[in-house]
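Hi F.,

I've been meaning to write this up properly since the lab meeting, where we talked about keeping a consistent format for the predictions we share between groups. The idea is simple: the sequence comes first, exactly as it goes in, then the structure tokens exactly as they come out, then a line or two of notes. No screenshots and no reformatting. I'm using this chain as the first example so we have something concrete to point to.
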Amino acid sequence: MRPDVQDQIISIIAREAVLEPAEVHPDMTLDELGLDSLGLVEMIFAIEEAFNISVPFNANEPSQSDFDISSVGAIVRAVERMIAGPAPAAA
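Output, unedited:
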């Protein structure tokens, strides 16, 4: 994981969960952080704005999303993949 991306995402998540960034770790789930559905949506919007990306997330059916929100680390990896862009096609 890229430290700069991870730090930004942890900062966003901490703000939405009303925690200090030092209290947020990559292996934590959003439930463990006490993030409710409104906080989740706010977090997604903040990530989109911070990284100038469009997160494929359906707030009505989070489990049906292509965006992995199973842990802080999963969110960081998903954002890193989106920033990197689509994988090059195989020759």
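Notes:
The two ends are 27 Å apart (CA to CA).
The chain is about 45% helix and 0% strand.

If this format works for you, I'll send the rest the same way.

G.
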